[in-house]
Amino acid sequence: MLGRNRRLAILAEASFTPRDAKTAVGVLRYRAPDVVAVLDSTRAGRTAQQCAGVGGDVPVVSRVVEAAALGADTLMIGIAPQGGGLPDAWRSAISDALGRGWDVLSGLHVFLGDDPEFASAARRSGAKIHDVRRPPASRPVGSAAAGALESLVVLTVGSDCNVGKMTTAIEIHRELLRRSIRSRFVATGQTGIFIADHGAAVDAVPSDFVAGITESLVLEAARGDGEPVEVVMVEGQGSLHHPGYSGVTLGLLHGACPACLVLCHEPTRDRMRLGSSNHGPSIPSLRELAAAYRAAASWVRPASVIGVALNTMAMDAEAARAACEAARAELEVPATDPVRFGAEPLARAVEERRSVRSAATAAETRRFTER
Amino acid sequence: MLGRNRRLAILAEASFTPRDAKTAVGVLRYRAPDVVAVLDSTRAGRTAQQCAGVGGDVPVVSRVVEAAALGADTLMIGIAPQGGGLPDAWRSAISDALGRGWDVLSGLHVFLGDDPEFASAARRSGAKIHDVRRPPASRPVGSAAAGALESLVVLTVGSDCNVGKMTTAIEIHRELLRRSIRSRFVATGQTGIFIADHGAAVDAVPSDFVAGITESLVLEAARGDGEPVEVVMVEGQGSLHHPGYSGVTLGLLHGACPACLVLCHEPTRDRMRLGSSNHGPSIPSLRELAAAYRAAASWVRPASVIGVALNTMAMDAEAARAACEAARAELEVPATDPVRFGAEPLARAVEERRSVRSAATAAETRRFTER
Prior knowledge:
- 2 copies of one chain form a homodimer.
- Chain A is an alpha/beta fold.
- In chain A, helix 6 packs across helix 12.
- In chain A, the strands form 2 sheets. In chain A, strands 3-2-1-4-5-6 form a 6-stranded parallel β-sheet, sandwiched between helices. A 6-stranded parallel β-sheet of chain A has the order 8-9-7-10-11-12, sandwiched between helices.
- The first copy, chain A, has helices spanning 22-31, 48-52, 64-69, 91-99, 116-125, 165-178, 190-196, 210-223, 246-256, 286-298, 317-331, 344-370, and strands at 8-11, 35-39, 60-61, 74-77, 103-106, 129-131, 152-158, 183-186, 231-234, 260-265, 304-310, 335-336.
- Chain A starts with 7 loop residues before the first strand and ends with a helix.
- Chain A is 38% helix and 14% strand.
- The relative contact order of chain A is 0.11.
- The longest helix of chain A is centred in the last third of the chain and has 27 residues, at 344-370.
C-alpha cells in the first residue's frame, strides 16, 4: 500500500463503529491481511468483527506500543470526520508512531505533514507522512472528454454521504473481473485510495479542478495497460441533495461523464447527515433521486440509472430482501445489497449495457461530439 | 483596496481585451480612480477605453518603470486565465514591481507568495504579496442555513463563464442602494474581491467547503452592521452546464440558498468557452437554463428566476433591445443589459419580490425548516 507492503495499525480512538470509522471499515473489508490491529481504547479487547462487522479476528488495542508488539509498522488514520480536522486526543498516538519510525497514512483534510511537531518527529526518525487527501499539483479543467470514451463509464451516486458508493463500485468491479470483463476501479476518496493504491480525493481538490482531475483519472483508467478496458467503475461522492457536498457530486459527475449510474441508498435513513446530526434535510424518494441524477447528467452527457445498491446493514434479512424488491419495483432496474446478497445483478446490468453499447458506440459518440 | 489606498498598475500583457482581461476590466469599471496605468506592451499608447471599453483615459504603457513615473505603487494581475497559471512573460514585471517595494495583488490559482523568487524579492523590499484566491483557513460544511434568512438572497447564474454574473450582481446592488434598499454585495471571485475588498474565491476552495464558505459569507452579509440588510446580492460562478465548472456553480447555489435567481447570458454566444476554444458544448435555450437552475435549487431550497441580464456588448443597440425583448418574452420576466440600459428593471423585480417576501417570510421559513 502506497509504495510498499505494510503492517497497519488503524487509529480509530473512541470511534471504531461502521458509522464513525468509515475508512477503517473500508480498509478492513478489502485489505484485512495488511491490518494487524485497530487502536480504540474504549473498545480494547474486542475483535474488529465484533466492533465493525468486518476484519475478523484483527484485535482492538489501546496503545501504539501494543500494536508494535503485534508487528505493526505503519499508522493509518481510520476516520474521516466531517470538516476533516484532527481530534486532539489522537496527537499523542501519531507522535508515538512517528517516534518509532512508522510511516503515517492520513486522509484528513488537515495535512499532518504541515504540522510542525509531526514534521519534525518524522524528520528525526526517518518516517514518511502520506497525506493522501493533498490534491495533485496539476490543474486540469474538465472538458467532457470522458463522454466520448469507448469504455463504458459507470458511476455510483447516492442519497447521502456514507451509504455505500465506494463499496458498491468495488463490489461491481470485482464481480466484473470474475466474469472476465476488463474493468478498472477509480478511487475518488481517501478510503478508496488506500484500497486501490491510486486515485485522488476530489473533495479536497480546489473546486475549479474537480471535474478535470476526475476526467484525468477516468481517461487514465480507460487506457488500461496496453489493452483498453471495457468498464471504468468510478466511486461517487456526496449527493446532489446534500447542502454541503452537492458541488463535489456534480463536479465528479460531469468529470466522469458516465453512461450508467448505480443509485446507492440506506433504506433506514430518511434524513441526510449534517455535521454530527442525523437530522439534516429529508431524503427524496428513489424516483426523485434518479430523476435528479439523470437531469444533472444530461446537462453535459446523458446517463441512465441501471441499478440500485442498498446498504441494508441495519435491517434483518427479510426486511433487506423486501427493501431490494421495493427499490426494483420503484425504478424498474435490478436492486441488491452488494455486500449482503452479492453484486451479480448489478454486474449483469453493466454487462448488458456494455453489449448494447458496443453496437451503439459509433452513433452515440458522433451525437455526443456534435453537441 | 486590501488594507490601504492604492495607485494601481494593472498587468494585462498581450491580453488587454474584455475577453482576456476580465479582472482588469472589472476593476476599471468600478474602481477606475484607483488605477493609474495598464501594462500591455502590444497596446501601449492607447487608452483603457480604446482597448477595453472601460477606464476612460487611463493610459496603456509597456513597462513597470513607466507606470512608476505615473505614480503607481501597486501591481495588480489583471487576467484570470483558465487553469490560473502564470505566463512566463509576466515574471519580469512582477519581479520589477516587487523590487520597487510595490505590493502585488493576484487572483491567480497559482500563489505568487509561494514562488521562492517572488517571496524573497518581497522580503528584501518589504513589499506584500496578496494572493486573494488563497482559500480561507476555515473549513465549514454547508448546512442550508442561508435558506432560513429573513434577508432576500439573490444569486446571479449564467449560461457560461464570463457572461456578466459579477457585473450584474454589482449593478443590481447599486441600483438597490439608490432606491434606499439596504443591500450587500457578496463577492465570490477574485475580481469581485478586488472591487468589494472582501469575499472568497470559491473556485479555489477545496470542493467540500464551497457551500460552507459561501454560506458564511451570505450569513455575514445578511447581518449587516447592526441593522440586518434587506437584500444580499451574491455573485455567481460558472454554469451548471459547463463541463469544467458546474461543481463550483452548484456548491455556490446550495451554499447561498437564494430565493431569487437572475439569469445572465451573452446572446451572441452559442457555445461555451472551454480552454482557449470558443467551441465548447452548445448553450441551451434560456428556458432550458432557467428550468435547470430551478431544478438544482429545489434540491436544497426552491428559487425563482426573476429576471434576465444580457451582455450585449457585441451587438448594436437595436439588436440589443431586440434580444432583451426576446428574453423577456421567452421567460416572462424582466430582461435588460444592466450596463447598457441600466439595472432598474432587475432591481424592481428584486424589490417586488422583497415585498412579497416580507409578508410571506414566516410561513416560508417554517416550511423550509420543516424539510
